[in-house]
Amino acid sequence: MLECSEILTKLVLIAFVLTFSLSYTLAQFFSMDYKESAHREQHSLFKPYTDLGHWDGFGAAVITPEYIRLTPDLKSQQGAIWNNKRVDMRSWGVHINFKIHGKGAVNQAGDGIAFWYVKERMIPGPVFGSKDYFSGLGVFIDTYGNHLFQSGSSRSEQHDSHEHPYISIIVNNGSQKYNHDDDGGSQNLGGCSVKVRNKNVTQILVRYDNDMVTILRDVDGKGLFDICAQVDGIELPTGYYFGISAATGDLSDNHDIFFVQTYEANNYEMRVHSIHASRDGIIPSARRDRPKEEEGGAWSVIRIMLALMGVTLIAACGYGLVAVTSNKPKGT
Ligand SMILES: [Ca+2]
């Protein structure tokens, strides 16, 4: 009969091996874009910004040598930068280095930054400074929780589990209106909370590969990324445009972009069904029947494994205790 200490030792060893293996996989995942993928200069943007190259400034955007200020910390501003080269890559990663900062207190900021991979560019509108009824992918860094200030039945229950600022992933085929009052809650495919305001710098990596959108975040700009959200089953066409926009309303922030670096992310083996399928002209779509993920799936797997090991340990120790008790000589 194994003693509890022996069982615990074995479980710790198993946990160590599993954790090491998973960490190695995640490390490979995070480093892939930087070591193996091909940089795409025509979709990237670096300082000094004397020349925007293949990008165009729009609206309130101000170009300085060190950064691009999409909006100043003033009310009712809209600004954007749009890449003017269509994207012919089926799989890509876009690394954005930015800063959101302003005089407003916590929960007194707005409205946020949007990363776009969309059909139409340079059209102002109400969705973080760009057009509504967009066709393509939007990743919104939403600094103002409109839903938090809704009341009664108009407040979506699914928002109660997260705080703003919040990153959300939304896919639109051009037919849906973005609901600001709900912070896009009914359309949100996945996301995470990010305390991005008034940091020195924040980084996100938006990756689209094998029909999967992955958001990696480095909130404090220290080079340590973790998974914000990962959503499978998203089909996007080639030939759309990258853009980044920002807007302010009654509340405001400076929305600054330091650089944009784009990679072709074709390291994964393509799925059989999509190897030869043309992505030119397909309609953007998302498989909405999958469960939403607040955090990355890998961390969920770790939690499940630890829970299973905990249950196993308790059961094994309990069984051992019962066995010892039943074999114990009876007193007189
Ligand atoms: Ca909002």
From TrEMBL:
The keyword Signal applies. Residues 32-265 form the L-type lectin-like domain. It holds the Pfam family Lectin_leg-like. One of its GO terms (molecular function) is D-mannose binding. The chain crosses the membrane at residues 297-322. Coiled coil: none annotated. Gene3D superfamilies: 2.60.120.200. One of its GO terms (biological process) is endoplasmic reticulum to Golgi vesicle-mediated transport. This is VIP36-like protein.
